[in-house]
Amino acid sequence: MKKLKAVSVILSLSLILGAFTGCSQGTKIDKKGNEKVKIGIVQPIEHPSLNQIRESIISNLDELGLKDKVEITYKDAQGDPSNINTIVSQFVGDGMDIIVPIATSPAQSAAAATKDIPIVFAAASYPVEAGLVKDVTKPEANVTGVSDAIDVNEIFNLAKTLTPNVKIYGFIYNSGEVNSVAAIEKAKKYCDDNKLYYVEATITNSSELLQATQSLIGKADAIFTPTDNTVASAMSVLSGEAAKAKIPVYTGADSMVKDGGFATVGVDYDLLGKQVANMIKKVIDGEKIENIPVETLSEYTKVINAATAEQIGITLTEEQLKEYQVIK
């Protein structure tokens, strides 16, 4: 097994809050006799989108006045699914007060590992389909969080505006990621409803991405990949091959556009992290999970990569440059 990477982040702030009524299990007493709420954050792999979420959660907890009142332990599974279960088991054994899994697979692992510790997930795109909750409006167990489900139709509407001649889309995704499968099903429906064709290339790990991308070259006029963690971890491979073939890549996240994708109506992960931090504070303040509905991302951003546009031969109008968030 790969060695697990652990980073502990100890937060401190001068603001003094009231007693924590909702997180008695596992709290740590500091030298001054104050309780610290122990929070375990786990993500499946290091890549920009997930890192951005984690950093936003931590910084927003600071802004909420919790910096000196919580102890955060962060670990990533380094792309190994078996490591996720090990990390979550460690969190349960260590008596974490709150577990914050980033992405769907860690959220599923956490939900399976404990029915007592509050779980606030971040970026589990389709929590009902993933079996995390039955009703997003009133979670019945110990799990709630913020979904980063993308508006697939809006992405394809953007694609229709930017590249109206596309007739065949290539889909690349990890067939083992529930969130990706759900997004691809929505993409297929859009294509069916709009008389567009599509071809698929599925992967199980990032090492397969090059071959999968190459298999679509010559078959597809454009490529779509959702907020897929496996693809995102090696996005430069996909974007590089597509650029050589002059094929636009539409993605589910702005970070994937920054890594060479062409455009998206995507997720603002700083905002998502802020929503998660607010939810964590509710749990710390004693609010029951069943009274904290699952939230979806409240805002989306149209993002386009001007450098990629130039590489693949697409000229952006002045109006488009003003309308979209442009990465140069």
Reconstruct the topology from this structure.
Elements: E1 5-10, E2 28-29, E3 35-43, H1 48-63, E4 70-76, H2 81-93, E5 98-101, H3 104-113, E6 119-122, E7 143-147, H4 152-162, E8 168-174, H5 178-193, E9 197-203, H6 209-216, E10 222-225, H7 229-232, H8 235-244, E11 249-251, H9 254-258, E12 263-267, H10 269-284, E13 295-296, E14 300-305, H11 306-311, H12 318-323, E15 325-327
Parallel strand pairs: 3-4, 3-5, 6-7, 7-13, 8-9, 8-10, 10-11, 14-15
Antiparallel strand pairs: 1-4, 2-3, 12-14
Structure commentary:
Helices cover 37% and strands 23% of the residues. By secondary structure, the chain is α/β, with parallel strands linked by helices. The protein has two domains: 5-148 and 268-299, Response regulator (Rossmann fold, 3-Layer(aba) Sandwich), CATH 3.40.50; 152-267 and 301-327, Response regulator (Rossmann fold, 3-Layer(aba) Sandwich). The strands form four sheets. Strands 1, 2, 3, 4 and 5 form a five-stranded mixed beta sheet that branches. Residues 1-32 have low confidence and may be disordered.
